[in-house]
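Example 200.
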Amino acid sequence: MTSLVFPTETSSSYVEVTPLKSLELSAFTLCMRVATELRGEREVILFAYRTQNYDELNVWRELNGRLSFYLAGEGVFFRTPELGPMETHLCVTWDSQSGASAIFVDGRKSLTKIYKKNHRIRSGGKIILGQDPDNFVRDFDQNQSFVGEIYDVNMWDSVLSQTEIQDLLSRKQVQPGNVIDWNSANIRTHGQVQMVSLEV
Ligand code: CA
Ligand code: CA
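Predicted structure in complex with calcium ion:
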């Protein structure tokens, strides 16, 4: 499986992932495996989907170690076990109809928070790993960049069950992501990002 190593802090290293379908979404599950040796000294971007005028979906490790995501505006924050230097399997789920959102860390679910009920994520953007664009798609800040390893990034346009998320963690066969399927994803690296092949 392809894995991405971001060796140093930059404002120029990033990866663009081409989705399988438009990200006009009223629900999603986004999962990844991630490891970073950055401690709590700054915020770290984990995933960015940016349209012309909005950060439609950003996932962050916040300054205080909380995990968060933002859908075009104020974010929702979760106290969870912190990301660290050993690989963590991380999933984020959100459903527009109920506003139910949750974070799963190594298959364990956070509490549910109600966030952005009836919101819709808009199509026409780009998916960026490693940097937070503040414009389409540029204006990166190295103090928000990702440093570490990230891979197995998959996305669905629905909320997966807790059992399915635990199956993903243990690499059992589940329905492949219908928005991002890491095994077949078109991944373009820029700057110092290294693609490595992992035996899993
Ligand atoms: Ca920024
Ligand atoms: Ca931004």
